[in-house]
Write a structure and sequence with these properties.
single chain; alpha/beta; seven-stranded parallel sheet; 9 helices; 9 strands; 13% strand; globular
Length: 276
């Protein structure tokens, strides 16, 4: 809940972090001046997370995550927000990159491919890395849509990069995907290999079949799910190391509604700082 400031970012750096990831509410009010000043004072890199056709407050002061269906509007939003990111990242001394929540889950495969083809061309106008997140409501909302997109002839030969936040897939599939389970073994290794080749960033929040975020991953009842997820992340990180890439990962444990809360009182069921 603390506002962006040099003091806050220095405290983040003191905990051992190399960067911060922020959504557009962190910069749209002043063009990113506070963000840049605070990041530079702490020596932190910046990951700018953008939500096409979202990322703002409506007239009721509610956050709009995705407010449009039309592909043209998502293209326009992408162009505008990438241009904003370019101005900000040019001023961050230790650099950074952009993480996109792109498009909509309800588009057809042809629409998704058309949009991503446009996005990849737009991305090449800039010097920073761009990744597309595996996130609910968006193009890479589940492993099956992701497989079909990545195998499409218009995408397969591109250098499209993913931010793997697999907690969203575990919820949408209602299970922690496991290459050793008979129900997953025929198809999950293939998709995992596709993702492994394109993973350039990870959100390593730990979830479950029923919730996007474990309230306390240290709880013994969570141990089996935690181990499976860490094994998958380790494989993704190793693939990046094998390609001699920098490995960037964000814990991304968040406050409510990501953190489960008690009914009526709305108190967190666990400590967010300890969960991280």
């Amino acid at each position: 809940d603390d506002p962006i400031s040099p003091a806050l970012f220095k405290s983040i750096a003191a905990e051992g972090y190399s960067g911060v990831e922020v959504i557009s509410l962190a910069w749209i009010h002043d063009g990113g001046l506070d963000l840049v000043r605070s990041a530079n004072s702490a020596g932190l890199s910046v990951v700018l997370q953008i939500h096409t056709c979202g990322g703002y407050l409506n007239k009721n002061k509610e956050y709009v995550y995705c407010g449009e269906y039309d592909i043209k509007e998502h293209k326009k939003s992408l162009v505008e927000q990438l241009a904003q990111c370019d101005v900000i990242l040019e001023l961050v001394k230790t650099g950074g990159f952009v993480n996109i929540h792109a498009g909509m889950d309800s588009w057809s495969l042809d629409d998704a491919v058309q949009y991503l083809t446009f996005a990849l061309k737009e991305e090449k106008r800039y010097p920073f890395k761009v990744v597309f997140e595996t996130h609910r409501q968006r193009l890479f909302h589940d492993p099956f849509q992701t497989r079909d997109i990545l195998n499409h002839s218009s995408i397969a030969s591109t250098d499209l990069k993913l931010n793997c936040d697999l907690s969203h897939w575990y919820v949408s599939c209602e299970r922690i995907l496991d290459i050793h389970e008979p129900r997953d073994a025929p198809w999950w290794p293939e998709i995992l290999q596709l993702v492994r080749k394109r993973c350039a960033y990870t959100h390593c929040r730990l979830g479950s079949a029923q919730t996007i975020q474990l309230a306390d991953p240290s709880a013994p009842e969570c141990s089996a799910d935690v181990k499976m997820q860490l094994d998958t992340f380790t494989m993704l990180w190793q693939a990046q190391l094998d390609r001699q890439e920098e490995v960037w990962s964000c814990p991304e444990f968040g406050p409510q509604p990501y953190m489960p809360s008690m009914p009526h009182t709305q108190e967190d069921v666990s400590s967010l700082s300890q969960a991280v």
